[in-house]
Design brief:
Layout (H helix, E strand, L loop, with lengths): L2 E4 L3 E4 L2 E4 L3 E4 L12 H6 L3 H5 L10 H4 L7 E4 L2
Antiparallel strand pairs: 1-4, 2-3, 4-5
Amino acid sequence: MPSYAVRFSLLLVAGVRLEGAAGTCTDITGWADSWGDTCANYELNGNWCVSYGDGFANGGHTANTACCACGGGVMSSCC
């Protein structure tokens, strides 16, 4: 499961603006969309977040809520 350290207050990911305190983003553990694509697939295919990030829900999440690369995931504070 990828984890991304965020050490600045503004981050642009796939056109999604995230503001806030420094922290670490972690993808929702084990999440895959209804076609079986994981957060890693969305990260590797940069335009997928914009094109498909709100579709193909599975387990109550879409890529835009489950994957850090799409502006989702779970943020934990650091520093």
